[in-house]
Amino acid sequence: MRALYPGSFDPLTLGHLDLIERGSRLFDGLVVAVLQNPGKTPAFSLERRLEQIQEATSHLAGVEVASFDGLTVHFARHCGAGVILRGLRALSDFEFELQIAHTNKSLAPDLETLFLATAVHHSFLSSSVVKEVARFGGDVNHMVPPGVAVDLARLFNRSSPQA
Ligand code: ADP
Q1: Residues 40, 74, 102, 142: which is the catalytic one?
Q2: Closest alpha carbon to 76 in 49, 104, 100
Q3: 48 is catalytic
């Protein structure tokens, strides 16, 4: 069974990476797919986000990195994925995630959404929190992969972190 892990990944955090590592052990193949959302202006270009994920997952067999626009269910079919993987950090994620899962089920009854509970020590992590900390010069080395920490320092004109 192949799975699709879709998201904005703007940027990739250690919370995302934990989910990718666990997902790659559960499935024969895992496609990590960056959504090109025309309604959002990302901090990092699509190309950079793809590179960040590729770099951080190069040690994982069976993980592919891709980008897509349009409906997740269409892209899941295109990839041959039977499962959409998502993460749950807190109760606040639940309502939104359940709505998307139900919508996707109504569009593609053969696809299942599987939720993995976040690792406790990553449960406070989001791409927004990471950008906020980096913007004001805080240490993000325990929140993101080394390459992303360098990118964040560059983005906010801070000196490069000791990764
Ligand atoms: P989206 O814009 O689709 O929510 P994100 O990049 O924010 O994209 O998140 C993609 C998926 O990763 C979501 O299912 C989200 O709940 C999950 N996720 C985000 N942060 C974490 C984390 N710290 N631990 C586990 N899962 C996470």
Answers
A1: 40
A2: 104
A3: no
